[in-house]
Please model this.
Amino acid sequence: MTITEPALAQRRALTIAALGTLLTLVAFTAPLATINPTAATLGSDAAGKTWILSSMSIGLAAALLTTGTIADDFGRRRTFVVGAVILALGSVACAVSPNTLVFVLARVVQGLGGAAVVASSLGIIAHTHPAGPSRARASGIWGASVGAGIALGPLVAAGLDRIATWRDAYWLMAVATVVLAAVAHRRVEESRIETPRGLDPLGALLLATGVSALLAALVEGRQGWVQPVPITLFAVSALLLVAFGVTELRTRSAMLDLRLLTQPAFVAATTAALAAGAGIIALMSFMSGFLGNAFGIDALGAAVLLFVWSGSSVVTALLARHIPAQMTGSVQLAVGLIGVAVGQLGLLGLSETSTWVRLVPGLLVAGIASGVLNAALGREAVASVPAGRAGMGSGANNTARYVGSAIGVTVVAVVAIPTGSPTDAALVAGWNTAVLFTAAVSVVGALVVLACRTRTARGSAGVRP
Model:
């Protein structure tokens, strides 16, 4: 069967968009399996480890909405290419970082570039794939690329750390991202909306600084929650985030149209992304370091265990297009979150004598559910916003995911890592507490999604909510 030129262009766009998302997630998850050797090389303390795991999330959260608007207004291909170059530059900076501060700042730069890649990738897919079966299939492939990036990042970093050094993973990412940028510039058709909304630099600044202040307050709070520094940071964060909301309501070029918060479909998709980040992604981000400290499992062994979760999510996301059409997007989101919670509870109850085999069933269940969730999130992010605003929908959805991840990683580290020199028993007890927290986040997210679905049904029936 001959493939027509439009179909070939469609495949190229999907392949490049998915690979860009995959590389961003590889960069995001690379430190997970090598957090202990990375921290040892950079001289990082417990707070430094937390910042290493959270810092790329800050860049992603700060820039996803802005880069989504830039992609829609000024060109999705152009935004994708520029973002890939910035991601490569951040990777080079990570590879040569001499200390924790420089590495954390480099990770933030990676997040800024990755935000442009991810936000524009879903915009490219929405432009090239019309709503219906074609977009459902493309969204499943995009969701699989998320899981594949999460799977490959720890394996690549741990494998290179074993044969050389963890720094080589960042050199490899830089080269791969530059190659992808060159291919995208030549092979992806440019697209943008007809009526630009304009940029919102003040909103972007307020969101970035507000989230950063909140994370800093959570990290500093481990030294005492009633100390002046965390209290001040919490207050500053609250003021900045309130100012962000006020700014978005008043400006004509808001990067987030707050009227969308009255739309149940948008609230459901955004809440599910937030719960995914603060739930399963936060727990998996912490797992590798925990396994090394409590059970002596090396970086490669921890990466293989992470692959049990992420690899199974890839397979499920690819198969998600076969889910019957009667199961709506909101139902898939809720089912995915409930399944993730069940899988996390399967990781509960570890003791000092537990082995890695004890983790496998829970990781498999959580991985299968994550695949359903990722596939639905990619589709609902675009479907829950007005036509032509795919970049904003992608930006809002992924912002929620990575804000949730940054906050979740910080909270998990706070509740799971005792101060001082913790014993193995204390580390295991902290893990069990962290599992309860992240499972609860997943359940609450599912309940909110179901509540939004009920509200939508009432609205469709003409019943006032």
